[in-house]
């Protein structure tokens, strides 16, 4: 079986250089991505050693990128040992010297004769603290936790865990950082966390991302083509250049819409494109993808997108349009809904009510960023 080609180093060129620039400066940053936007794919791409070498150059060996899936780390008792194990695994994946890996394994081990998981969370955190002291302090290297499903962390991790992570970061400032992927602004997730409002934890961790929170937009045309190349390996007849451009227009480069459209397209390649387009616009599976995105939108964004689809420009606030453009949901000038499939779905929805706007920390990756 032929393996799919690697993603090119130019993948997500509009965003990835900013994230690595933040890493180089020791800053934490967040990426806000709507459902199906390819957020997990982006974060996994970032931790590939070849990608780190490309963006960090000679500094790559001084940075340990540790990929985490936060929704799999919800059990408080095992949290810190699991985190320490992930640090050790990342050093192995990134080909650290064998002696260095052995030292990390010793530091991450539970005390001889003691339980693998300590009953007290501070005791349980001790191996992780030793690891970070060794890497960030003694070796003067940087650890970057690339954390997918970070919304699950702010909503599900105990406050004590969140506070301890912030304390560890403060102890190793500029040498311990986070790249967090989340469905909403981290500050909003923290504010909506149902816990004692007098006990800080979610807010303290979310503060780390206040200066560098970026939206994840749909694929560019070049990234759409790279995704198609990976997903059509083994096809008897791959999509033509014209069909790839038409798929990008229909899906707007939304990752899940694109992949699901390819599933529908393969047996229909012999049909005229007009028939294929009608079939994709009427497909129930693609409509479900649109519904998930629609439900995940903030109420104000939902109304703004509805107004844009219905060409009610005079009723569309400038701030609402700007939010849509930040997420790539509005494209072009004059602006239009980024995807023909999504536009067809929105046109069939009832008019959403007006909603109060919330102050967002999203930054435009295309704008000048002060590091």
Structural overview:
This protein starts with 15 loop residues before the first helix and ends in a 24-residue tail after the last helix. The model has no long low-confidence stretch (mean pLDDT 90). It has 18 helices and seven strands. The chain folds into two domains: 200 residues, Rossmann fold (3-Layer(aba) Sandwich); 139 residues, no CATH class. It is an alpha/beta fold.
Class derived from helix and strand content:
alpha/beta
Q: What amount of the residues lies in strands?
A: 5-15%
Mean pLDDT: 90
* SSE arrangement, N to C: HEHHEHHHEHHEHHEHHHHHHHEEH
Number of domains: 2
Q: Do you know the CATH architecture of the largest domain?
A: 3-Layer(aba) Sandwich
Strand line-up across the major sheet: 2-3-4-1-5
CATH level-4 homologous superfamily of the largest domain? P-loop containing nucleotide triphosphate hydrolases
Instruction: Using the coordinates above, name the CATH class of the largest domain.
Output: Alpha Beta
Shape field:
globular
Helix content: 40-55%
Specify the number of helices: 18
- For the secondary structure, the number of strands is 7
> Stretches where pLDDT falls below 50 for ≥5 residues?
none
| Main beta sheet | 5 strands, parallel
Q: Give the N-terminus to C-terminus distance in angstroms.
A: 45 Å
Task: Record keyword descriptors for this entry.
371 residues, Rossmann fold, 7 strands, alpha/beta, 2 domains, 5-stranded parallel sheet, 50% helix
